[in-house]
């Protein structure tokens, strides 16, 4: 339809509607209905029919319900954009609010509330008030939601007219369950929004909503609610903390049959309640797992792939928390031919997670079948899964059999994955070298093309040169093809392997070493060049020195780094039955800032990420396009890794550092043999770090808070950057503090103060600024508080030229803030005095 | 924030339910149907949710508020001239204590039927072992009963059920205490319960595939037969062979039934139907591998289809249906059918 004919048609419609407006002749309703239908269709497909507004309103005087509905729909759609015209509708909507038919009353009230025009709010109050008192449940249902709509347009008018209080009364007393549900929904949203307006009242109101009488009245009639309202109620109940275990048991008894509901949403919501009620009762918690297993397992394999994935994600979370409880149910996680790849992948993770001594054989047999899968991605994942399981258990023969089977398949990607797997196995179980090497020996190096697999093979050749007679000759082949080797990772690996072989079998490899080093020195890749140069110079210092650095005795890796911190896992668990579980991320990581609420931290552009000591270590590239959030993140990550180094618990000397460092320094390429180099530098860094601290005399600090303070701090508070941001955004400033430092001159850089704070159990989250003004974010945690609460957050701004400092303190528990303030002041005053 | 965190399963399930309701109202769900029925859809959405919060999705309740715009009501509106897309009264169920059933329902003929529909999921692994076998079952009911009947159903062997879930109308206390289903049914068709039975030891039919490769040609032999007599004939047996990508061409024939290769999906379907008494069905033929390949490296998977009328393979049987609290006597019926669900055989 072109623009002209459309205009013509609209004019035509307009004329017809106008003609019908006052008409009372029989059959007019049917003609009107057809016209309205046309208008609605145009509106829906995006044609602007707002020019018909007055005609539509004129025709709205009708007793036909469908016509009315269409009219309401039209008005609701255009009122917002044409507030002046919307005024025309008020009259007939208000009249309809007093109709005899409850359905018309309800619909009119809903339309009235949905106009969303600020100037018209005054016309809304009266009908809304009488709607809430209407004799018919349908009208009250609409009215309850109308209050929420009013709140969104005009919050103060909503609260001033006591609407929330009316909803609260209905919540407890209304005979219609849907009214109760809508009240609950509206109140929750209103109180959440009120937090920004009047935090104290909102907190009190929320508390009231979560109080025993409210929760009990909802629970007692849970079966009256629709399935969706049940989800809402259950979600709220999961936030309620019962006073004792008897109460928990009562609640679980009431809710037990919700686990048998056909609606998976209800089942999952109920499961969340059960998990939260029993979180502090270990044995009951376990029984809950047993109880909820059956419904979850049913949901996994019945229904759509999307449902399967969502439920599996939830199960995955539970399995990781209690793998043993699911060890007999592994067959539920077998992949089916028709499963989409994303489901299969998750199932493989599940199989890996539940594997233990009793079921490993079956699981690995099953996984081995997938290795022949047509879906290459899944075939690869299956082999990795076998690898992960192998790393958990000790049956060398069974595993080696599988490996041979994989290699016999003669498929490039299978061979590649297998090689990587063998390498990881050897890093954990060096004692298996004999069996594993026998397997690797059968691989023809020409079939290995993937860099990861090639690196693994080269590493094994260098590491186990004694067990493989022809290792030097295979490596020689690689060296000859140096130019053709595209991957820098492989070339790095080659350098290390050749050097290691040289220590073990010098006569056979000296020539090759020369070739490799000269090729490396000429290499265009900076890292390769540097490593070649390093080895060259080390060798100049003497073979023994070089061997101590390049090929120290290794300690087997006991645990490979876990990618997700337990705090994050706990947080995801708290958000059970939400997208967080499906994304495997806590909500603050994927929700928009607007949704999360304001975060003050981000307004400061001057914050630089700083670990406690290695401020220079941040790669420039990381700084370039990262937002403040990311900077904070990288700062805290680094802090952790540095903490691991400086703790010294895993690192007693330069050659013991092992592979664990592969999780640490961001600049490391962290390929297996390159770690020997990285290790030595990081270990050396660790030593020098210790020396440095000794020089400063920092180790002499007492690592405990002075006894005269009532508040004790936790020795190792742990708070990730995101959690810090979230808390900072949520909490109000409890106290502020002004102080003048006694020796401001001792602050050329932020580090001394950071160290001073750390020695007094106050950790740094981020610091930044330029002399003379520095800004710090500190945190500490009260001793004896659970892992996620009892935190104190401090923003400290220090002017080093005047010594003037100003602190803002926020606390999870505001009542502890004064004690903390006192303590913080004492710590701050002691800076520079000793 | 509250809303963003509202259960993900809830959102997914709700959207699914909306689609179900629309399908039922429009007799399908397609772009054209949606375009033709904007008004009905708007009306439905209005009653199903308000301000983003789900209200009722119970079809029986919705139908009392908004009549389906199907042929019957259109004809009706032409004949009587009355507006027929909407009933003039509010459904009593919106405020009834039995939200799934309106009061005052009347049928001239009172009847209730139950369908036991089971799907068998099984995986036979490469070595011919039953890696897993489970049955997912549903009891579908169609109720046309007047008044407020109270129905109870009992099973001979409820203990085999591994996990059950019920329609909201089922009283769970009754199930917990004596394993009986006791409920006031909604009017019309609904899913009364669904269940899972795990660790079945046997499947009704066997499939024995054999592959031998020689110089790029794979010889295939597949035998199919009845493994155990289930009391009723096994019908509609089909076998789908998923060819791996390394197979260039195939030439397969069978001594019974029809073989239909589909080159675009790489699926060859062998429809057997019922196993004949006099011979064992057998599929023979050769697969030509892509040049350069000596032998088959990915082994194909077979998907099996079958149907058994009159028997629930899980063994579940109902022994009694009682209808109480009504004056009339009603016709009661129970049927069972088992189909292959995800029944796969790896070779």
Give the chain pair forming the largest contact, with residue counts. A-B, 94 and 74 residues
N-end to C-end Cα span of chain A? 85 Å
Spatial arrangement of strands, main beta sheet of chain B: 6-8-4-3-18-16-11-14-13
Low-confidence stretches of chain B: 1-5, 71-95
Helix percentage range of chain B: 10-25%
Backbone structural class of chain A:
mainly alpha
Query: What percentage of the residues of chain B does DSSP assign to strands (E)?
Result: 35-45%
Helix segment tally of chain B: 6
Largest sheet of chain A: 5 strands, antiparallel
Radius of gyration of chain A: 35 Å
How is this structure best summarized?
Chain B: Pfam families: Adap_comp_sub (PF00928). The complex is a heterodimer of chains A (834) and B (347). Chain A is mainly alpha-helical.
Question: In words, what does this structure look like?
Answer:
The complex is a heterodimer of chains A (834) and B (347). Chain A has 834 residues and is mainly α. Chain A has 5 domains: 3-222, Alpha Horseshoe (Leucine-rich Repeat Variant), CATH 1.25.10; 223-302; 304-408; 467-578 and 635-699, no CATH class; 721-829, TATA-Binding Protein, CATH 3.30.310. A 5-stranded antiparallel β-sheet of chain A has the order 1-5-4-3-2, with helices on both faces. In chain A, strand 2 and strand 3 form a beta hairpin. Chain A starts with a helix and ends with a helix. Residues 594-707 of chain A have low confidence and may be disordered. Chain B has 347 residues and is an alpha+beta fold. Helix content of chain B is 17%, strand content 42%. In chain B, strand 9 (205-214) and strand 10 form a beta hairpin. Chain B starts with 7 loop residues before the first helix and ends with a strand. At the A-B interface, helix 2, helix 4, helix 6, helix 8 and helix 11 of A face helix 1, helix 3, strand 2, strand 4 and strand 6 of B. Chain A: GO terms for molecular function: clathrin binding. Chain A: This is Beta-adaptin-like protein. Chain A: Residues 661-679 have a biased composition (Low complexity). Chain A: Belongs to the adaptor complexes large subunit family.
């Amino acid at each position: 339809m072109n623009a002209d004919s459309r205009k013509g048609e609209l004019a035509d419609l307009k004329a017809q509607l106008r003609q019908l407006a006052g008409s009372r002749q029989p059959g007019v309703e049917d003609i009107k209905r057809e016209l309205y239908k046309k208008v609605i269709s145009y509106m829906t497909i995006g044609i602007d029919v707002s020019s018909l507004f007055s005609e539509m309103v004129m025709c709205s005087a009708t007793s036909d319900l469908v016509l009315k509905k269409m009219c309401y729909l039209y008005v609701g759609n255009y009122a917002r954009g044409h507030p002046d015209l919307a005024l025309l509708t008020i009259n007939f909507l208000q009249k309809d609010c007093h109709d005899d038919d409850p359905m018309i009353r309800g619909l009119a009230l809903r339309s009235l509330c949905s106009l969303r025009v600020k100037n018209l709010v005054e016309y809304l109050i009266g009908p809304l008030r009488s709607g809430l008192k209407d004799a018919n449940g349908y009208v009250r249902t609409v009215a309850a939601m109308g209050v929420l709509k009013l709140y969104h347009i005009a919050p103060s008018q909503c609260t001033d007219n006591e609407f929330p209080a009316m909803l609260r009364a209905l919540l407890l007393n209304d005979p219609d369950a849907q009214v109760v549900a809508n009240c609950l929904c509206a109140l929750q949203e209103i109180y959440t929004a009120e937090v920004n307006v009047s935090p104290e009242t909102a907190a009190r109101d929320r508390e009231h909503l979560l109080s025993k009488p409210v929760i009990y009245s909802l629970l007692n009639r849970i079966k009256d609610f629709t399935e969706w309202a049940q989800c809402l109620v259950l979600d709220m109940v999961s936030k309620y903390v019962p006073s004792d275990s008897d109460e928990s048991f009562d609640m679980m008894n009431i809710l037990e049959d919700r686990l048998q509901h056909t609606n998976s949403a209800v089942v999952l919501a109920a499961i969340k309640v059960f998990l939260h009620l029993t979180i502090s009762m270990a044995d009951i918690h376990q029984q809950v797992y047993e109880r909820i297993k059956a419904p979850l397992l049913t949901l996994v394999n019945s229904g759509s792939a999307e449902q399967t994935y969502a439920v599996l994600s939830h199960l995955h979370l539970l399995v990781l928390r209690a793998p043993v409880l699911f060890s007999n149910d592994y067959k539920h996680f077998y992949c089916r031919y028709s499963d989409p790849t994303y489901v299969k992948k998750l199932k493989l993770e599940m199989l890996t997670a539940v594997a233990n001594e009793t079921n490993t054989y079956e699981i690995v047999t099953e996984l081995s079948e997938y290795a022949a899968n047509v879906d290459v991605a899944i075939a690869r994942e299956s082999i990795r899964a076998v690898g992960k399981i192998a790393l958990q258990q000790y049956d060398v023969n069974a595993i080696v059999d599988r490996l041979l089977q994989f290699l016999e398949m003669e498929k490039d990607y299978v061979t590649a994955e297998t090689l990587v797997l063998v390498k990881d196995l050897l890093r954990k179980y060096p004692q298996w070298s004999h069996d594993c090497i026998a397997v690797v020996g059968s691989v023809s190096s020409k079939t290995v093309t993937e860099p990861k697999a090639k690196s693994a093979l080269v590493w094994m050749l260098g590491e186990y040169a004694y067990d493989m007679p022809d290792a030097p000759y295979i490596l020689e082949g690689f060296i000859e093809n140096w130019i053709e080797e595209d991957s820098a990772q492989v070339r790095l690996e080659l350098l290390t392997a050749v050097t290691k072989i040289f220590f073990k079998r010098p006569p056979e490899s000296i020539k090759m070493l020369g070739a490799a080093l000269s090729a490396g020195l000429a290499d265009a890749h900076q890292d390769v060049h540097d490593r070649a140069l390093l080895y060259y110079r080390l060798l100049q210092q003497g073979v023994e020195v070089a061997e101590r650095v390049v090929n120290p005795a290794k300690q087997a890796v006991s645990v490979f780094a876990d990618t997700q911190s337990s705090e994050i896992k706990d947080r995801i668990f708290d958000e059970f039955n939400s997208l967080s579980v499906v994304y495997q991320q806590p909500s603050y990581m994927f929700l928009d800032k607007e949704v999360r609420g304001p975060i003050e931290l981000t307004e400061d552009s001057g914050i630089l990420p700083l670990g406690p000591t290695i401020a220079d270590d941040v790669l420039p590239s990381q700084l370039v396009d990262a937002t403040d959030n990311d900077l904070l993140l990288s700062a805290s990550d680094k802090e952790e890794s540095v903490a691991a180094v400086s703790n010294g618990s895993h690192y007693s000397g330069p050659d013991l550092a092992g592979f664990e460092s592969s999780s640490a320094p961001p600049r490391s390429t962290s390929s297996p043999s390159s770690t020997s180099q990285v290790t030595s530098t990081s270990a050396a860094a660790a030593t020098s770090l210790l020396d440095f601290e000794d020089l400063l005399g920092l180790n002499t600090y007492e690592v405990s808070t002075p006894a005269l303070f009532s508040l004790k701090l936790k020795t190792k508070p742990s708070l990730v950057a995101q959690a810090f941001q979230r808390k900072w955004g949520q909490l109000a400033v409890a106290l502020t503090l002004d102080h003048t430092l006694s020796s401001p001159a001792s602050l050329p850089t932020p580090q001394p103060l950071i160290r001073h704070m750390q020695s007094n159990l106050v950790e740094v989250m981020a610091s930044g600024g330029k002399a003379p003004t520095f800004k710090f974010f500190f945190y500490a945690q009260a001793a004896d508080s659970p892992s996620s609460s009892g935190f104190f957050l401090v923003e400290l701004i220090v002017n080093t030229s005047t010594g003037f400092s100003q602190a803002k303190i926020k606390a999870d528990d505001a009542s502890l803030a004064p004690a903390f303030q006192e303590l913080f002041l004492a710590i701050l005053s002691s800076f520079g005095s000793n | 924030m509250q809303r963003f965190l509202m259960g993900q399963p809830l959102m997914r399930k709700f959207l699914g339910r909306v689609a179900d309701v629309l399908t039922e109202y429009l007799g399908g769900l397609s772009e054209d149907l949606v375009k033709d029925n904007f008004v009905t859809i708007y009306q439905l959405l209005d009653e199903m949710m308000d301000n983003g919060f789900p209200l009722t999705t119970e079809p029986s309740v919705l139908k009392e508020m908004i009549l389906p715009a199907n042929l019957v009501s259109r004809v009706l509106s032409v004949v009587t001239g009355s507006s027929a897309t909407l009933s003039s009264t509010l459904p009593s169920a919106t405020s009834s204590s039995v939200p799934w059933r309106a009061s005052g329902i009347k049928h001239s003929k009172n009847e209730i039927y139950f369908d036991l529909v089971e799907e068998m999921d099984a995986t036979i692994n490469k070595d011919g072992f039953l890696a897993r076998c489970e049955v997912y079952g549903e009891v579908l009911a169609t109720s046309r009963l007047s008044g407020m009947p109270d129905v109870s159903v009992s099973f001979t062997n409820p203990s085999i059920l591994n996990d059950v879930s019920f329609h909201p109308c089922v009283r769970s206390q009754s199930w917990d205490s004596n394993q009986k289903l006791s409920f006031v049914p909604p009017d019309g068709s609904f899913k009364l319960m669904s269940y899972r039975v795990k660790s079945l030891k046997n499947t009704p039919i066997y499939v024995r595939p054999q592959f031998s490769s020689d110089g790029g040609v794979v010889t295939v032999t597949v035998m199919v037969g009845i493994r155990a007599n289930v009391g009723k004939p096994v019908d509609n047996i089909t076998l789908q062979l998923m060819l791996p990508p390394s197979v260039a061409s195939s030439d397969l024939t069978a001594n019974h039934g029809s073989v239909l290769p589909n080159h675009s999906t790489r699926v060859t379907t062998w429809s057997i139907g019922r196993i004949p008494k006099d011979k064992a069905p057998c599929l023979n033929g050769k697969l030509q591998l892509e040049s350069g390949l000596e032998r088959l490296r990915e082994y194909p998977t077979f998907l099996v289809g079958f149907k058994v009328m009159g028997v629930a393979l899980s063994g579940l049987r109902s022994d009694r249906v009682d209808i109480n609290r009504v004056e009339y006597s009603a016709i009661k019926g129970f049927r069972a059918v088992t189909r292959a669900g995800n029944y796969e055989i790896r070779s």
